[in-house]
Write a structure and sequence with these properties.
It contains 7 helices and 12 strands. It is of the alpha+beta class. The strands form 2 sheets. It has a 9-stranded mixed beta sheet, sandwiched between helices. A 3-stranded antiparallel beta sheet has the order 1-3-2. Strand 8, helix 6 and strand 9 form a beta-alpha-beta unit. The longest helix is centred in the N-terminal third of the chain and has 19 residues. It is elongated, with a radius of gyration of 22 Å. The two termini are 32 Å apart.
């Protein structure tokens, strides 16, 4: 994007110690510090960079840096198949879409999530799924469809409980991992670094998802259905406007489903 903004021949991201900002090559080279210890180096052979262009590029990078800190903002996932999947916070306007994703889920997926045999979610639950008390919901959206969602609900002991649901057709594609990693970032922003999740004894999907999201997983010695998910010292968070895929309430139990 920076290359497009500047109509540059080449833009590279290098350590700041290698950027050499004093080397302008007669205006054909420009350096833009970015993040911690990094810088973009832009080059254009056919004409020197003009001051308005440099100012526009600097403003673009400032906007990008601000977006990275906006954890409540939407995140566009980079996917190999090019599908536009966005993670964003749920709102009451998503009630119908949340109801529809439950209808597209199999009985097994719903049982893993809610630990009870239901084929559809009562409409009176849907608002609470989207706006849980003491918590937030995070949706994975493709087009007009919600294809998965997670919840982060603060507990009285200072931890937070997480839960996930991904519709069957999208399982195994990293959607659950991306949702969980984003929920971890939201939890950390609020000062919470220890999460819990409830799963069926035979369901290890949440364990695998948590490991892929960079969390340490421990089983409660008193209850094997309760997982303790801890953010390690160097936490892995997902923030910003784009991220790469590398590899619910008590009435509606906040238990963990398949990834």
């Amino acid at each position: 994007m920076l290359r497009t903004v500047l109509s540059a021949d080449l833009v590279t991201l290098v350590p700041i110690c290698e950027a050499n900002p004093g080397r302008t090559e007669g205006g054909h080279r420009a350096v833009f510090p970015f993040g911690d210890g990094q810088a973009f180096v832009a080059r254009r052979r056919w004409v020197a960079f003009a001051e308005p262009e440099l100012a526009q590029a600097s403003a673009f990078l400032e906007l990008l840096a601000a977006a990275e800190q906006n954890l409540a903002g939407p995140v566009l996932l980079d996917r190999p198949d090019g599908a536009a999947v966005v993670l964003r916070v749920g709102t009451p306007r998503d009630t119908d879409a949340i109801g529809a994703v439950h209808l597209r889920c199999s009985a097994k997926t719903l049982f893993n999530r809610y630990h009870t045999g239901l084929r559809s979610v009562p409409r009176k639950w849907l608002h609470r799924l989207l706006m849980p008390p003491r918590g937030t919901s995070l949706l994975a959206v493709c087009g007009h469809d919600v294809i998965g969602f997670g919840q982060l609900i603060s507990q009285l002991d200072g931890t937070a409980e997480v839960s996930l649901l991904v519709e069957d057709a999208w399982q195994g594609q990293g959607i659950g991992t991306a949702l969980l990693a984003r929920l971890v970032a939201l939890a950390e922003a609020g000062g919470t670094t220890e999460l819990t999740a409830v799963r069926l004894p035979s369901n290890d999907a949440m364990v695998r998802t948590a490991v892929r999201a960079g969390l340490q997983v421990e089983t409660s010695p008193d209850d094997s259905t309760v997982l303790r998910l801890v953010v390690p010292g160097t936490s892995r968070t997902v923030s910003g406007s784009r991220t790469s895929l590398c590899p619910a309430p008590r009435a509606a139990p906040a238990s963990s489903g398949r990834e």
